[in-house]
Every structure is written in structure tokens, then in C-alpha cells.
Design goal:
Layout: H1 9-28, E1 32-37, E2 42-45, H2 47-53, H3 57-60, H4 65-68, E3 71-72, H5 80-88, E4 90-98, E5 104-115, E6 121-130, H6 132-172, H7 176-207, E7 215-218, H8 219-233, E8 238-243, E9 248-251, H9 253-269, E10 276-283, E11 287-293, H10 328-338, E12 342-347, E13 353-360
Parallel strand pairs: 8-10
Antiparallel strand pairs: 1-2, 1-6, 3-4, 4-5, 5-6, 7-9, 10-11, 11-13, 12-13
């Protein structure tokens, strides 16, 4: 006997109404909702999906998603979403798809596993939102930032030169009080110069125009030199370096210096009550991993997945004490990615943070 036959007529009508309601909800959602089985066969395709992609429900149901979707991941490795989905049960990120007419569309996708009443995974469901207009707006903003940063660099550099010249002149005349004022002005101009350089880097990274001059170098000695420079500027903290065997990598030393200077200065900045920062270099068979650990305010877990996003700042009670634009870690992430490496964080609020960077070792010829 069919299970539905065991129900009374009123119960059957109730089940039918529930199913119709669920179907109506699915069709009324403004995001494209697409469900597949574990073999990626499309089982559900709502009206928003039809509008977004141009294929009707009749054209896609029963077909493999790979036959319908062309995709590209602008910020993540191609298989990262599958690994994340298998280990955590969900994935959220940006992906570029093509519509039926071949035009490209930027999507913010949220993918989750679907389980039956026994907890067995039986498929996947994706809620895809069109963010093409937002990406175009971001592109115009990036273009403005790039042009503005470029145009401001020349007058700021000139101001810095004049300030230094005037400072030396006042020192020769014995006017130390005025010279100190100029020294403070020069320090602020240095900060402004760095900010403009960072904004210009962001603009170049968004358009893929960053140039990297890669060469083989001694990684351990290079990290040691960076630590020495930071240590002289920050005597209130002890930066302890632990090294294993010597190793070499292929990379752009200037660009990689941006990464490690940023990690070390952040470690000092966000641990004002601590006195130590630990740096450990551990080479393996084909990669070297560096960790930078501080004993400061830490980062809550909900921020870990977003901390490397552009302009993202951790919102907490410490914001007034530690101002910033949220661009340093984004630039670091992009530089490490260009070197085929990885950067990530392990942290707990109130217990400090450890940032890790892994880079491929130079292969012996």
C-alpha cells in the first residue's frame, strides 16, 4: 500500500497544501535557488534562476550542472568550495557564471549540503545572488582610488622633501623646537605616503597589474633582517625567532617584505600589554611555513574567514584604540597568493593571534 493511502482525505489535503506552500516559497525567493543530487544532477530550479541564467526549468531539470554552468573563481582555488562543503557542510563565496546567451554574471553563492531525516547527505542546494552591478560599482571605485592615489603621490612627495629640507635648515640655525615640529610633520607625511602606496597597490591588484620580480634568496636570513629592522623600531617588544635548517625560496623580496612587516607590526600593535612576539620558521619537503604569534587582544572566530577581505575590519570594543582601514591583510593575502602560497590565522579573542604563511621552496636544479 502506498504511504499516502494510509492518510485520510483531510490529511492528504493538508500534505498537498504544505507541498504547494513550500513550492510557492521556493518560487517567490528573489535569489536563484538550485538543488542537485550528489552527482550534480539538477533537481530544482526556481523562477529567479530562470531570470538570472536564461534557461527555463524544463531545459535544465535532469541535466548535469556541469553541462549548464561555466564558472570561474576570482578569489579562491577552483576546488576550495568542494573541500569546504565536505568538511563544514557549507560554502559561501564569489563565482563568475555565464548565462545562456554567453554573458558573464558575478554571483555571490551560498551552497549547503542537504540531508535526509537520517542525517544522510542526499544533495546540495545553492542560493545564488547576482552582484554584477555591485562589482561594476566596485570597479569604478577602484579606478577612482587608483587615479587619486597616483595623482596625490607627487604633491605629497614634494611636501615631504620640502619638510625635510626646512627641518635641516632649522637644525643648523639651532631652532630645535621648530625642527621637532617639522620632524612630526615628516612622520605624518611618511604615513600618508604609505597609505597612498597601499591604495595604489589595491587598485593594481584588482586589475591584475602588479609586477613581481622573483628570484631565489635565503629565506631564513631574509626574515632575520626584517625582524632586526622591526626590533630597532619597537624596543618595547622582544621578537624571538626560532629557525630550523636553512632554506631558499623564489619570490619578490620587496613584495614579501610588505607581508612580513605588516604581520610583525600588527602583532606589536595589537598586543600593547605584552612584551613578546614569537616567529617560527619550519621548512618541510616542498614548502616553508612561518608563524607570527602575539599575546594580545586576539580575534573572535567569526572574523577569521573574512579578515583577509579588502577593507574588512574587526568590529569590537578595541576599535577606538586600534584604528585602521583594513587593507594590510588583504594586500598580504594577494601577495602570498601571487607566490602560490597560503596565509591564514588561528586566534581566540583575549588570547592572542598566530598568523601563518606557507610558501613553496625553491627546487634544486
Amino acid at each position: 500500500m502506498d504511504k499516502l493511502d494510509a492518510f485520510s482525505d483531510d490529511q492528504k489535503r493538508g500534505v498537498e497544501q504544505d507541498l504547494l506552500f513550500c513550492a510557492s516559497v521556493l518560487q517567490s525567493i528573489s535569489d536563484a535557488v538550485i538543488a542537485t543530487d550528489m552527482q550534480y544532477i539538477i533537481l530544482s530550479w526556481n523562477k529567479a534562476a530562470e531570470t538570472l541564467y536564461g534557461w527555463t526549468q524544463e531545459e535544465v531539470l535532469g541535466k548535469s550542472a556541469s553541462d549548464i554552468f561555466w564558472y570561474e573563481f576570482p578569489h579562491n582555488p577552483p576546488d576550495e568550495w568542494k573541500e569546504h562543503l565536505q568538511t563544514r557542510g557549507y560554502w559561501k563565496g564569489e563565482v563568475i557564471h555565464k548565462r545562456k546567451d554567453g554573458t558573464r554574471v558575478h554571483i555571490m553563492a551560498s551552497v549547503s549540503l542537504v540531508k535526509d531525516s537520517n542525517g544522510t547527505v542526499i544533495g546540495m542546494v545553492a542560493a545564488n545572488r547576482d552582484i554584477t552591478a555591485l562589482k561594476e560599482l566596485e570597479q569604478r571605485k577602484d579606478e577612482f582610488i587608483g587615479v587619486a592615489s597616483h595623482e596625490l603621490r607627487t604633491p605629497v612627495t614634494a611636501l615631504k622633501g620640502y619638510a625635510q629640507l626646512l627641518q635641516r635648515t632649522l637644525e643648523k640655525q639651532g631652532l630645535q623646537d621648530y625642527a621637532q615640529t617639522l620632524a612630526k610633520m615628516d612622520g605624518q607625511l611618511t604615513r600618508l605616503t604609505k597609505l597612498l602606496a597601499d591604495l595604489l597597490d589595491i587598485s593594481k591588484m584588482q586589475t591584475g597589474k602588479v609586477a613581481y620580480s622573483k628570484a631565489v634568496f635565503d629565506f631564513n636570513a631574509w626574515v632575520h633582517d626584517i625582524i632586526d629592522d622591526i626590533q630597532r623600531a619597537s624596543p618595547q617588544h622582544v621578537i624571538a625567532l626560532t629557525r630550523d635548517t636553512e632554506c631558499k625560496i623564489i619570490g619578490d623580496q620587496d613584495r614579501l617584505s610588505q607581508v612580513f612587516i605588516n604581520l610583525l607590526t600588527n602583532a606589536i600593535k595589537y598586543s600593547p600589554k605584552a612584551e613578546r612576539v614569537d616567529v617560527i620558521i619550519r621548512p618541510a619537503s616542498d614548502i616553508v611555513t612561518v608563524s607570527v604569534r602575539d599575546y594580545g587582544i586576539g580575534i573572535a572566530k567569526e572574523h577569521h574567514s573574512r579578515i583577509f577581505e579588502r577593507f574588512y575590519r574587526v568590529t569590537s570594543s578595541h576599535d577606538n584604540t586600534f584604528p585602521g582601514l583594513g587593507i594590510g591583510l588583504y594586500i598580504s593575502h594577494e601577495i602570498i597568493r601571487a607566490h602560490e602560497g597560503k596565509i591564514w590565522v588561528e586566534s581566540e579573542e583575549g588570547k592572542g593571534s598566530t598568523f601563518f604563511v606557507s610558501l613553496p621552496l625553491a627546487q634544486d636544479e
